[in-house]
Design brief:
The chain is mainly alpha-helical. Helices cover 93% and strands 0% of the residues. The chain is built from four helices and no strands. Helix 1 (2-25) runs parallel beside helix 3 and helix 3 (64-104) runs antiparallel to helix 4.
Length: 187
């Protein structure tokens, strides 16, 4: 099951990377290409939502012991999806503003450059946020693994202590039986 989930994760990562690059290019394209790009991004966003649904179904089928790790991943993927949709809305607003400027005859070159610069900065911030989220995710997973290891070590310690106690009891019983046998031999 987790292999299916990981396959969906890879598909989701590739798809979101494509969507991010296309969203960043929308404001800089000629009008006809922008329309096509907007339609293409809408289609890919729907595909990403479907992948998230598939991943969610896979998480529900995972055993409860390891479900928490996958649930955390799903939360971060859903947040990433929300960010992509927000960025797409911003990009469409910029696209709408351009269309309005073209209709009104405004020349928005300086504002266009500012928008492009802001979009680049936003993309950098999002990449940094994703890296931070991935680091946090790794830390959470590492903590969970550490807790599991501590529990296993605790169980092993209890087993060793019980075995040691049985060994002491056996040793004491052997000593008693040795004394009894020695006493029997003397008689």
């Amino acid at each position: 099951m987790s292999s299916d989930f990981e396959g969906y994760e890879q598909d989701f990562a590739v798809l979101t990377a494509e969507i991010t690059s296309k969203i960043a290019r929308v404001p800089r394209l000629p009008p006809e290409e922008k329309k096509q790009m907007v339609a293409n991004v809408e289609k890919q966003l729907e595909e990403a939502k479907e992948l998230l649904e598939q991943m969610d179904l896979e998480v529900r089928e995972i055993p409860p012991q390891s479900r928490a790790m996958y649930s955390n991943r799903m939360r971060s993927y859903k947040q990433e999806m929300g960010k992509l949709e927000t960025d797409f809305k911003r990009s469409r607003i910029a696209y709408s503003d351009e269309v309005r400027n073209e209709l009104l005859g405004d020349d928005g070159n300086s504002s266009e450059n500012q928008r492009a610069h802001l979009l680049d900065n936003t993309e950098r911030l999002e990449r940094s946020s994703r890296r931070l989220e991935a680091g946090y995710q790794i830390a959470v997973e590492t903590e969970q693994i550490g807790q599991e290891m501590l529990e296993n070590l605790s169980h092993d310690r209890e087993k060793i202590q019980r075995a040691r106690e049985r060994l002491r009891e056996t040793d004491a019983n052997l000593g008693k039986s040795s004394r009894v046998l020695t006493g029997m031999l003397r008689r």
